[in-house]
Specification:
0% strand; mainly alpha; disordered N terminus; 64% helix
Length: 478
């Protein structure tokens, strides 16, 4: 990898941090190379490379951001390339920062929205990094709601040369930065969230994801840069957190996992600005679900436990049930039978304690008996307890409303897998074919992956008549 010509000034900031971290030059180079591998980069740095950086040479490409992340992990605080005396670049970690202030949070998430709504396809190819979960979840847990989020009237911005900036011409009706945010604006954000949630549940995240991101860029960001008092500001940040989590959820559904991870982190920060601790726990639950899907069981369990710790024991029983069920899924991926079972029991008891008159946050109302049975079915499948998995999956399908089409598809595949595990090949193939037909109607990579996972499990029976029939049915769909 080529380097810029050497500078004359030694990099004392980098030298001080190397000493604080206790790295040798070779040790730092090795860690940068290892981190590069997480992102599909084949780097070949060594102790000589670090010596050149200390003498003032600037590494190119994404390397400054990688070096900064190495120190962030070692020292437990967020460090940027500039903190290391290195030039800024297009960082691979952009969007994983847990902002120091609401203003910085708006800058970070606004940059993500703009890049995502444009032609930056590489943003959707960024890798998921388990290590990127540690600092944001910790900062959320120990952080407090921001003292102030209100924004007052803005005067025209004047550049250094003293000439006022002429604002661009806006289309009539288009919101501009600085405008006052009204209760109607926030109600509109909430309505849009419900609309996109419905579309996602029915047709998959790929159906309207780009429209949601463009809405965030063109409508939500100008509101965040508008004028509002404390109460309105908290409600605005809460609505923005919800829409940003949904942007992450739909990105996750199309397998843009690194981008989804960044949206979740920023949603977590916006929830903190809103002063909504409970919603922050829901964002962590979402992050835990993504970790489960990607096979990172240990991180999934840790995120669920941070959520439990952060929300405390005063949360409504439905919320407690959700938090315990998500922890169980992490234990299931790890094959930890006893811990998984204990978490499922806690979830079941919490849901049984719920009463009709309980005040339940809007985002937790989906968690009912159908959803709990779904969680049980998935967990027992992961533990290869197929009879229990089949019983719970069947119950979930009986109870689940048709509007949750994608969730029903996932549960049908779980049931097919359980039937296969019980040696019921005919039923398994029939259920699998139904799921494949539904997946073909959706824009959801996760739905396709569920079906492919089932097909991989069919391989040992590929010559059996039911499996040949299954393949014929699936072939007819394409």
């Amino acid at each position: 990898m080529t380097e810029r010509p050497a500078q004359r000034t030694p990099n004392r900031q980098l030298a001080a941090l190397i000493a604080e971290a206790g790295f040798s030059n070779a040790g730092l180079a090795r860690r940068v190379d290892q981190l590069g591998l997480e992102h599909g980069l084949d780097l070949r740095y060594d102790k000589t490379s670090v010596t050149r950086w200390l003498r003032g040479q600037q590494p190119r490409g994404t390397t400054p951001a990688l070096i900064a992340e190495v120190f962030t992990r070692r020292l437990g605080r967020r460090l940027s390339a500039q903190d290391l005396g290195l030039d800024a670049c297009a960082p691979v970690y952009a969007g994983l920062e847990f902002a120091a202030s609401p203003e910085e949070a708006v800058d970070i998430v606004g940059g993500l929205w703009r890049k995502d709504s444009g032609s930056h396809a590489e943003l959707r190819k960024i890798a998921f990094t388990p290590a990127g979960l540690v600092v944001p979840s910790r900062d959320w847990l120990i952080g407090r709601a921001d003292d102030k989020v209100a924004r007052g009237e803005q005067s025209p911005r004047v550049p250094a040369q003293g000439r006022p900036v002429v604002p661009r011409q806006r289309v009539q009706g288009e919101r501009g930065p600085g405008q006052k945010v009204t209760p109607g604006d926030i109600a509109a954000l909430r309505s849009v969230g419900e609309l996109f949630r419905t579309l996602d549940n029915m047709y998959g995240g790929g159906h309207a994801r780009q429209a949601l991101v463009r809405y965030l860029e063109h409508e939500c960001e100008p509101m965040l840069r508008g004028t509002y008092g404390e109460q309105t500001g908290r409600r605005l940040f809460a609505a923005a957190a919800d829409l940003t989590r949904l942007a992450g959820w739909t990105s996750y559904d199309i397998a843009a996992h690194g981008l989804a991870q960044r949206y979740f982190v920023q949603s977590l920060r916006l929830a903190q600005a809103a002063g909504d601790r409970a919603y922050g726990s829901y964002v962590l639950v979402t992050m835990s679900r993504q970790a489960v899907y990607l096979g990172h069981g240990r991180e999934a369990v840790q995120l669920a436990r941070v959520a439990q710790q952060g929300v405390g024991t005063n949360a409504p029983p439905v919320v407690q049930a959700l938090l315990h069920a998500v922890e169980a899924r992490g234990h299931g991926v790890l094959g930890e039978v006893r811990s998984c079972t204990a978490s499922l029991v806690r979830a079941e008891r919490a849901l049984e304690a719920a009463r009709a008159g309980d005040e339940v946050p809007y985002w937790a109302r989906f968690f009912d008996e159908a959803q709990l049975a779904d969680e049980f079915g998935h967990a027992h499948r992961d533990l290869q307890q197929f009879r229990a998995a089949a019983q719970h999956a069947e119950r979930s399908l009986q109870l689940r409303a048709p509007a949750f089409a994608r969730s029903r598809l996932f549960c049908r595949v779980v049931l097919a897998t359980a039937r296969l595990g019980l040696g019921e090949l005919d039923q398994a193939c029939q259920l699998g074919a139904e799921a494949a037909g539904q997946a073909a109607e959706m824009r959801s990579v996760r739905a396709i992956e569920y079906v492919r996972d089932f097909e991989r499990r069919l391989e040992p029976y590929k010559d059996a008549a039911p499996v040949r029939g299954y393949r014929d049915k699936v072939a007819a769909l394409s």
